[in-house]
Amino acid sequence: MGQEALQPDRLCESHIDLHDRQHFEIAFTYDASPVLVRPDGRVRFRVDAYFFLPPSLGVSALSYGKDDFFDDVLSYLRFKTPDLSSEALADPLNALSPLNVLSFNLKQLVELPTPDPELETSTIHEAKLLGCILIANWRELRKQARTLVKTLSRFARPTPGFAEAIADLRLRLEAEHALLMRFRSLRRAYTDNQASLPPELLDTLRVVDEYLTYRFDENLGKLHQVFASLGEAAAELEERLRWLGAYEALYRQEEGFICLTNSDPQSFERYTYRTGALKKHLAQVLFLDVRTVREVRRFRGLVAALGAGLAAFWSTLGDRNINVQLHGISTTLLILIVVTVYILKDRIKDFFKEYVATQVQRLLPDQRMTITDPMTRQRIGSCRQTVRYERKRRLAADIRRVREFTHTIDLDEAREEEVLSYRHDMTLEARRIHATHARRMHVKHILRYSVANLLRRLSDPNVEVSRFNPRTGRFEVVLAPKVYHLNVVFRVSAIGPDGRAADPVYHRLRLILNKDGIDRVEKVVHNKRMREIGQDHQPEILERTDDPLLNEAEDLSPS
Questions:
Q1: Burial (CB count <10 Å: 0-12, 13-18, 19+), residue 262
Q2: Minimal CA–CA distance to 31: which of 420, 505, 405?
Q3: CA distance 417 to 56
Q4: CB–CB of 348/307 below 8 Å?
Q5: How many CB atoms are closer than 10 A to CB 231?
Q6: 523 touches 16 (CB < 8 A)
Q7: Cα angle for residues 21, 22, 27 (degrees, 5° grid)
Q8: DSSP characters for 503-530?
Q9: What is the residue extent of each domain of the chain?
Q10: What are phi and psi of 328, to 5 degrees?
């Protein structure tokens, strides 16, 4: 089974993940669906984020400006991995299967009398795309396994459908491995035709194969961790996982890929470095080219130039009047006029720099991104980004409601919060995307935010607390965690063909911070319409642990 499809009423989906102690991520998936296409062939989405900064963080507009915010945000744009199940990939009649396209293209390249650079490039893209889809499907298989085990753990003994569920998962695992073997057979079939295929294409096939064996082996290990708790109930599946693991280890040895051994500690270093490079290489087929311009800096320079020009004009005018009237004026008055002219000249320059620039900035985005499809070199979208500090009492009613929902402590700390707002307006050239891509129809915008600059003024992560312990009848000193709460509210809207925003979706995160970084993230409101808020207020907790199964978000962003 492939990745989950976008629901019809979720034209812009969101996913939130705790990346590490210093970063959290939110990914927006934009659906360039024909239902949203405006007369100009575009689709539009708007995301508003409100950071409620408590006074205890020591952060304000003076200490944390727009440039600081943009420096703390890493932004990636790519196509969403196409949703093609193992059945769809294996179907020989499916023209959208990259496995079928790859097989057809390789045959064409061997039979062509002269090289075809365009077909060669397309074939390389298909090989990389196949790798991305297989890895996404393996991730989905792990999610299904984890859900199954969690369900089964609620029962004291195996339920009647337990054996069937395990058997079904094993069948899905075998189907995924069969696809991997089909790709390898295809690669081997053309290895002997090196004279007919370009070296870059052969290298790509080998690189994709290498990365897939690493990731499939990792997938087997994670499945083993999932089913280990079931003991004898999943013994046959466990045995199959071990057999596949041994097979992959032997395959890597035969192909000359990295083999992890305790006798060679550097093999682990080579492995992590190599897999990081391979991951980026495959993900290139999904990533979009982005050119970012800081509009504020560009117009700040223009305004400064205008101010300097006007100041120079005033200075020249003053000098002219001084020269004309020089013989009929006292020395003292002349000095006063000269001083006044130069004071006004500097004030005019500063006025343009500060006041006029501020007024112009209100009308312009702070940052603009131009999005280009690397395959066609066509512009397929743009994004306008704006950062402002807002007065809390002037926020829109819906944002205030989401922020005030389920307060942990209703004290002045929350009332005195500084509010930093971030908005991005995403416009996609849907018709251009549709004309080029039959499978990559959704654009994913990944924002990774660093909290490092918010931690500089925080106290030590633990404080000593003296207390009387009634159980022991003694006084004692214990260490208690010192934490801070940072609330972030997101409002996500699709802009319809009529220019009006669709029913927004809201998120609210409560970041629990200490001096060392993010302790955990609580999803107080997640993917809710306004009418749904209040029906269920149990927050979902995101924590970083050593268990990779708890940190399974799709991650094709550069490491």
A1: exposed
A2: 505
A3: 9
A4: yes
A5: 9
A6: yes
A7: 100
A8: S-EEEEEEEEEETTEEEEEEEEEEEE-G
A9: 12-80+384-550, 86-285, 293-361
A10: -110, 30
The answer for 499, left when phi > 0, alpha when psi is -120 to 50, beta otherwise, is left
Per DSSP, the three-state class of 25 is: strand
pLDDT in tens, the chain (559 residues): 334 333 434 567 778 888 888 998 989 888 886 666 667 788 889 999 999 999 988 888 888 888 899 999 998 899 999 999 999 999 999 999 999 999 999 999 988 888 899 999 999 999 999 999 999 999 999 998 888 888 877 766 666 777 888 888 899 999 999 999 999 999 999 887 666 788 899 999 999 999 999 999 999 999 998 888 777 777 888 899 999 999 999 999 999 998 988 888 888 999 999 999 999 999 999 999 999 887 655 555 555 555 555 555 545 555 555 554 545 555 566 556 655 655 555 665 566 555 555 555 566 778 899 999 988 899 999 999 999 999 988 999 999 999 988 765 555 555 688 999 999 999 998 888 888 888 888 899 999 999 999 998 888 888 889 988 899 999 999 998 899 999 999 999 888 777 777 788 899 999 999 999 999 888 888 888 888 887 555 556 665 544 433 344 445 455 4
- Within a 10 A sphere around the Cβ of 341, how many other Cβ atoms? 17
Q: What is the CATH number of domain 86-285?
A: 1.20.58
DSSP 413-447: HHHT-EEEEEEEEEEEEHHHHHHH-SS--EEEEEE
Strand order in the sheet with 378-390: 289-294, 367-373, 378-390, 418-429, 42-53, 484-495, 505-514, 517-528, 540-542
Question: How far is residue 498's CA from residue 495's CA, in Å, rounded to a whole number?
Answer: 8
Q: CA-CA distance, 366 to 387, in Å (whole number)?
A: 7
Do residues 134 and 184 touch, judged by C-beta distance below 8 A? no
Which of 450, 352, 528 is closest to 72 using CA atoms? 450
Q: Quick one: tokens of 473?
A: 């009848």
**Residues sharing a CB contact under 8 Å with residue 499, sequence separation 6 or more, in sequence order:** 38
What single string gives the DSSP state of each residue in 270-304? HHHHHHHHHHHHHHTTTB-EEEEEEHHHHHHHHHH
What SS3 class is residue 406?
Answer: coil
Neighbours of 14 (CB within 10 A): 18
Residue 501 makes CB contacts below 8 A (sequence gap 6+) with 46, 493, 494, 495
How is residue 258 written in tokens? Answer: 């990295």
- What value does the CA radius of gyration of the chain take, rounded to a whole number of Å? 30
* Model pTM score: 0.79
Among the listed residues 522, 387, 369, 454, the one whose alpha carbon sits nearest the alpha carbon of residue 48: 387
Q: Which one, of 101, 125, 24, lies nearest residue 448 by Cα?
A: 24
Pairwise CA distance, residues 487 & 417, whole Å: 10
